[in-house]
Design brief:
Blueprint: H1 3-20, H2 24-31, H3 42-54, H4 58-71, H5 76-88, H6 92-105, H7 110-122, H8 126-140, H9 144-154, H10 158-171, H11 176-189, H12 192-205, H13 210-222, H14 226-239, H15 244-256, H16 260-273, H17 278-290, H18 294-307, H19 312-319, H20 328-339, H21 345-361, H22 365-381, H23 387-400, H24 403-408, E1 419-424, H25 430-438, E2 443-444, H26 451-460, H27 480-493, E3 503-506, H28 515-521, E4 526-531, H29 534-542, H30 556-576, E5 581-585, H31 586-591, H32 593-604, H33 610-613, H34 650-656, H35 659-662
Helix pairs in contact: 1-2, 1-3, 2-3, 3-4, 3-5, 4-5, 5-6, 6-7, 7-8, 9-10, 9-11, 10-11, 11-12, 12-13, 13-14, 14-15, 15-16, 16-17, 17-18, 18-19, 19-21, 20-21, 21-22, 23-30, 29-30, 30-34
Length: about 675
């Protein structure tokens, strides 16, 4: 912690002491210098709002809360305090709505559940009041340390949550809820192996704990261990086949393993019990889209919007089809929902990206860019991404993974030739290359597999002072046999995604950061670098809302720097591992499909097959944003789309630096 951060923490602690003593004026004065309107001011803004409410200054309290929701739009305690303020003014309707928003953002807020219980009971809604009471009583029964951990998690303070939870578990090593919460922190921080171990152990202690099993299913899915997740979901379903929650989880895991008929049947069963459930209708739409049944997917998304008109996820799902055009009425409905002062954070950024697509289709590029920029700004508020940290990681790869290392480690690894890695940046044409190659009889298409990223994460070890990690330096000292073990584990763990062909594709784009590791564990794997002209690639990434894992796309400067650093790192791999990577330029594929196809097939040691040229006829599930585009013949409509936005893209050009013109070198 820096000296500035320590000073801020000390100020917040003193302000809390003054508030506890009822000295709200003094606390306000102490907090005033911290109210700079940035993400660092969240706690100070919240505490100031509380002080002003106690001082009976509702306008000042409301102003602090409005600023707080701007810098941290999903901060549960802001909505809780809004509820307290409205209730103090006699506005019970606004108060109830605020408390409901509070627990959606942070279900660990006992005071919001208690307040809901009171207000719902007063309104004669006894069943809902009883449910709120059950939630409040559950939280009240938690040890205070774990209640604090719960709040830290939902406020994004993961390191604080981890520290406190580990300290608690040292005293109570078999406390199941403590283990579950620490696993949650681990999953959010990407330490998936630890999270997996914690949940497995907790389930052994309490095998009938349903929440543990639901968390475990989500973790297994995050690790893309789809068969294991399916087995867990089916076990719950077999307990209570009529339970819509269990039906829904079984449906989602069936979808992940490619059993679309089972998934759709289960989603329909859920809808019989819970008619017009918007989340189920949206998930059903995703299943239909992935299966290539676009018109039915559109109908399902529209039904979800009829049930919940502010559901940003469904609007964005329509936009993300890439081929869907919004009507004037739909655009106006989206604008109204996005402009609502009480719009939920998740809905708002989904709506912004959808509106960007809608106005781009209409040719209003200034308005489209404003919505894309607003959506990215909202996403960046919750992101911890720092371009400087990523650049350090790239430079560590170049420093450690040299030609000398590869010479010293020659002959290690698993000899299997099965994998074909397609790497690069998202939106660079990798899905097209995958579809082309997966149309070959000897090649299976799979997914953006997380295995290499998970392996790299496990090699990092725990972070030490100076923000250093063991990886990639550990590649210099690992026993030779370890590389073969890791390669064999990769082949075995990815087998579930294959359909029996001798070769398969792993198209996780971020694997370009770990080509050294891939070469050491799988020396006979093929690696293809899917590259696209930088302005087109970067702007396409900027206007794409990714589910997770591509946080560098939420700012023009960040994505420009990332592309520039990617080009530099790929130059390094070319020098350290000559001939290991085949570079395929997207624009060349569009100009000469057959020529580039033959290059790739020769590189992979595969004979020519006409089906690869007719790739758009290949029936297979495609789960990326390009799913509909690769079901059509080659076209060049997207090549120069970025030029329509060129007046707004100077920050991107500047960040790209020499890569703007030298990306083919």
């Amino acid at each position: 912690m820096s000296a500035t951060e320590e000073k801020t923490e000390a100020t917040l602690r003193e302000a809390q002491r003054l508030m506890t003593a009822g000295r709200f004026d003094d606390a306000c004065a102490l907090l005033a210098p911290l109210l700079d309107g940035t993400a660092d001011a969240v706690d100070a803004l919240y505490m100031s709002a509380v002080c002003e409410r106690y001082l009976k200054h509702p306008e000042k309290a409301a102003a602090h809360l409005q600023k707080l929701k701007t810098v941290s739009p999903d901060f549960g305690r802001a909505f809780q305090e809004e509820g307290h303020l409205a209730r103090s003014l006699g506005d019970t309707k606004t108060a109830l709505s605020a408390y409901e928003r509070a627990v959606r953002s942070n279900p660990g807020l006992e005071a919001s559940w208690r307040a809901q219980e009171d207000l719902l009971r007063e309104a004669g809604r006894s069943a809902e009041a009883a449910q709120a009471k059950r939630q409040a009583d559950r939280l009240a029964a938690l040890p205070r340390e774990l209640l604090a951990v719960t709040n830290f998690i939902h406020e994004g303070k993961y390191l604080k949550a981890e520290h406190l939870c580990r300290r608690f578990l040292q005293q109570h090593p078999r406390h199941v809820e403590g283990m579950r919460l620490l696993a949650d922190v681990g999953a959010r921080l990407g330490v998936l192996d630890d999270a997996d171990f914690l949940l497995e152990s907790a389930i052994e202690f309490e095998p009938d704990n349903i929440q543990l099993r639901l968390d475990y299913i989500q973790l297994l899915r995050k690790r893309q261990k789809f068969q294991a997740a399916l087995d867990q979901a089916k076990a719950l379903y077999d307990r209570e086949p009529e339970n819509p929650l269990f039906q829904s989880h079984y449906a989602i895991e069936s979808l992940q393993t490619g059993d679309f008929e089972k998934a759709l049947t289960l989603f329909d069963n859920v809808l019989e019990t819970v008619p017009n459930d918007p989340a189920t209708l949206t998930s059903r739409g995703h299943a239909l889209k992935t299966w290539g049944r676009q018109e039915e997917a559109i109908q399902s998304y529209r039904m979800a919007l009829t049930a919940k008109p502010d559901l940003g996820d469904a609007y964005y799902a329509l936009a993300n089809l890439k081929t869907y055009k919004f009507s004037d009425d739909e655009v106006e409905a989206m604008r109204v929902q996005e402009a609502r002062v009480d719009a939920a954070y998740q809905d708002r950024f989904h709506l912004c990206f959808a509106l960007g697509k809608a106005f781009e289709d209409r040719g209003d590029f200034e308005k489209a860019f404003s919505y894309y920029a607003r959506g990215n700004d909202l996403k960046r508020l919750k992101s911890a991404y720092r371009a400087e940290d990523m650049q350090k990681e790239f430079h560590a790869q170049m420093e450690i993974c040299t030609s000398d290392l590869f010479k010293a480690r020659a002959g290690v690894g698993c000899a299997a030739p099965d994998p074909i890695f397609i790497v690069g940046l998202p939106r660079a044409g990798s899905t097209l290359l995958e579809q082309i190659l997966a149309s070959h009889s000897q090649v299976d298409g799979t997914l953006e597999l997380p295995n290499i990223l998970s392996l790299a994460q496990s090699l990092r070890g725990r972070r030490r002072a100076g923000n250093e990690s063991d990886y990639p330096k550990i590649l210099q000292t690992l026993p030779a046999e370890k590389f073969a073990e890791m390669g064999e584990a990769y082949i075995e763990d990815t087998r579930i995604h294959r359909a029996g062909a001798p070769f398969f594709i792993d198209k996780m784009p971020n694997n370009f950061r770990h080509i050294g590791l891939i070469h050491l564990i799988l020396p006979n794997a093929k690696i293809i670098d899917a590259r696209r002209e930088p302005m087109a690639c970067c702007f396409s990434g900027f206007k794409q809302l990714f589910a997770e894992g591509q946080e560098f796309t939420y700012g023009l400067e960040d994505i420009g720097r990332y592309y520039r650093d990617y080009v530099e790192l790929m130059h390094h791999w070319d020098a350290a591992l000559p001939g290991k990577v085949l570079r395929v330029q997207h624009e060349d594929v569009l100009d000469d499909l057959e020529g580039q196809l033959r290059r790739m097939l020769d590189f992979c040691g595969l004979p020519f097959e006409q089906a690869c040229l007719d790739f758009y006829k290949t029936e297979r599930s495609v789960r990326t944003a390009s799913s509909e585009q690769v079901r059509q013949p080659i076209n060049k409509t997207g090549v120069d789309q970025w030029r329509r936005f060129e007046p707004f893209l100077d920050p991107l050009k500047e960040a790209l630096g020499p890569a703007l013109t030298e990306y083919r070198a």
